[in-house]
Every structure is written in structure tokens, then in C-alpha cells.
């Protein structure tokens, strides 16, 4: 099982909207993982790095937001043992990863996890996004990390289903037509398990380049889908569209016959 979450604006930590309670409900129903591995566009590096910190700091990697946001902490432990296994898997797949014992958790990791696991009781570590990652290699990155599920890791791609910050209308809950049309296209192909369509999303989907002027916030979805594998469908967590253009959907990908009930697109 793997998960894609839309982390939205940093204020998602303070303003949960539809997505926050839905993630909290999901976290209660998921089997408790040994650790969460997060891939986020807010840790992009030359090459690929794996976080080995035993006590990863909460990084407030944003500016211009309410003061209370900078006082928030997500005090989870890391998981160096599983990070070591991730490093070995990436090496075996030809990625040439580097261990990083000092990196904390960026807001793409801790903000959605505050909703998913609010007790901060599940260890967390991150794998960085290489700066040259593209759609094909994002899927391959997920494939390389897939065996970690057998060690109890929940692989989470944290990005944004749409991410045009130039068109954000703060506080506006009326969704733009283009954002809805793009979101509907992705939902359909996730739920039907159309992996080639998903990999080609930024070329094939309606309004793709308007929804994602740059691709880094979409690629974590492909990491999560790749971690589940070809033929895996995704159950939808409807997070709505915030600030006019930021779609907050999440998807749970599962290759097994047992499913988490109550999610749109899952068989009951």
C-alpha cells in the first residue's frame, strides 16, 4: 500500500478544510506502519539523498504566514534502520543515493502527517527528489522503494494534485473549471489503474500545464503509484479544491484483495 497526499499551502496545518479530517480518519483505519517514508518536492537535491536523522527537526521552510505556524512542531522519531534499507534498495536500482543524518522534515512531510497521524507516534524519514526527476523516473523511484512495504513502511508521495500558485485566490472556495477538469481526468485514471496514462499526465491531461506550470508537485503522485505497481488502482480521498485552484485530493494505492472501506473508488 502507498499513499499520495496533496499538502496544499502551509496553512493546511491550521486550516484542515475537507482534506484534514479525511486524512485523520484514514490514519485511524490504516494498519499502523513501522515508519512513513515521504517523498516531497520541498527536498530536491542533486542526486538522491536518504534521511537518517534519529530525531528529525520540523523545518519551517516558508515565509509570510501566521506566527502560530512557525511555532508548530511535529516531534516524531526517524527510522535509521529502514532508511538503511531504502538506501540499499536505491543502490541496487542504480540511483547512487547518499545518507543524510542532519536533514529534518520539510512542510511537505510534516503538514499532511499532522492530520494523518496527529499523535506523532509513527517514525518518519524522507527520500529526496532528484532535481532531474521526470515522470518516467518518478515511477521508477516508486518501483525501487516498493519492497519496503514488506518491512512495514508506508510510502507517501506528498505533492499537490494541482499547483498553479500564480492563480491562487486565498479563501475562495469556488473551484476553477480548469482545475476541476484536470482533477477529474487524474481521478479517473488513478481509479482505473491506467499507469501509462498517469505517467503521461502532463502531456495528455486537459489543462495540464496550467494546473502544473512546473512538474515537481505532480511527480510524487507517480512515486506513490509506482510503489504500488502496474495494475494498482487508487481509492480517492476527496479533499476539495481550496483557494480556487489547489486540489487537495489524496489517493490510496493498493495491490491486494483487501481494501480500506469507505473510500470513493474502492470496492466494498
Brief sketch in words of this structure:
32% of the residues lie in helices and 16% in strands. It has 268 residues and is of the alpha/beta class.
Morphology:
globular
The H-and-E topology, N to C, reads as: EHEEEHHEHEEHEHHHHHEEEE
Q: Helices and strands: which structural class? A: alpha/beta
Looking at CATH, the homologous superfamily is LigB-like
**CATH hierarchy, class:** Alpha Beta
The biggest sheet amounts to: 6 strands, mixed
Indicate the low-confidence ranges by residue numbers. 257-262
In the CATH hierarchy, the third-tier topology is known as: Protocatechuate 4,5-dioxygenase, Chain B
The domain count comes to 1
Describe the overall structure.
This protein has ten helices and twelve strands. The chain has one domain: LigB-like (Protocatechuate 4,5-dioxygenase, Chain B, 3-Layer(aba) Sandwich). With 268 residues, it is of the alpha/beta class. The longest helix is centred in the C-terminal third of the chain and has 15 residues, at 177-191. Helix content is 32%, strand content 16%. Strand 10 (241-242) and strand 11 form a beta hairpin. The protein has helices at residues 19-29, 67-70, 80-92, 107-116, 135-145, 177-191, 195-199, 201-204, 208-211, 219-228, and strands spanning 2-6, 35-39, 44-45, 49-51, 98-100, 124-126, 129-130, 153-159, 233-237, 241-242, 246-247, 250-254. A six-stranded mixed beta sheet has the order 6-2-8-1-12-9, sandwiched between helices. A two-stranded parallel sheet has the order 3-7. The protein has a two-stranded parallel sheet with strand order 4-5. Mean pLDDT is 93; it is low at 257-262.
Amino acid at each position: 500500500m502507498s499513499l499520495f497526499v496533496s499538502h496544499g499551502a502551509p496553512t493546511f496545518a491550521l486550516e484542515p478544510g475537507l482534506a484534514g479530517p479525511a486524512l485523520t480518519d484514514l490514519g485511524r483505519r490504516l494498519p499502523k506502519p513501522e515508519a512513513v517514508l515521504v517523498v516531497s518536492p520541498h527536498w530536491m537535491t542533486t542526486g538522491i539523498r536518504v534521511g537518517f536523522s534519529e530525531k528529525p527537526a520540523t523545518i519551517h521552510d516558508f515565509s509570510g504566514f501566521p506566527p502560530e505556524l512557525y511555532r508548530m512542531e511535529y516531534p516524531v522519531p526517524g527510522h535509521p534502520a529502514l532508511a538503511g534499507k531504502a538506501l540499499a534498495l536505491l543502490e541496487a536500482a542504480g540511483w547512487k543515493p547518499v545518507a543524510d543524518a542532519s536533514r529534518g522534515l520539510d512542510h511537505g512531510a510534516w503538514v499532511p502527517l499532522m492530520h494523518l497521524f496527529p499523535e506523532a507516534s509513527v517514525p518518519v524519514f524522507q527520500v529526496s527528489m532528484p532535481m532531474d526527476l521526470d515522470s518516467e523516473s518518478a515511477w521508477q523511484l516508486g518501483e525501487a522503494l516498493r519492497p519496503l512495504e514488506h518491512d512495514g513502511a508506508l510510502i507517501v508521495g506528498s505533492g499537490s494534485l494541482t499547483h498553479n500558485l500564480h492563480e491562487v485566490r486565498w479563501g475562495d472556495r469556488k473551484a476553477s473549471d480548469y482545475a476541476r477538469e484536470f482533477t477529474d481526468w487524474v481521478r479517473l485514471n488513478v481509479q482505473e489503474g491506467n499507469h501509462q496514462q498517469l505517467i503521461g499526465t502532463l502531456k495528455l491531461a486537459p489543462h495540464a500545464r496550467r494546473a502544473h506550470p512546473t512538474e515537481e508537485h505532480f511527480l510524487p503522485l507517480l512515486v506513490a503509484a509506482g510503489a504500488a505497481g502496474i495494475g494498482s488502482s487508487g481509492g480517492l480521498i476527496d479533499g476539495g479544491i481550496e483557494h480556487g485552484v489547489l486540489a487537495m485530493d489524496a489517493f490510496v494505492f493498493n495491490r491486494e484483495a483487501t481494501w480500506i472501506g469507505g473510500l470513493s473508488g474502492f470496492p466494498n
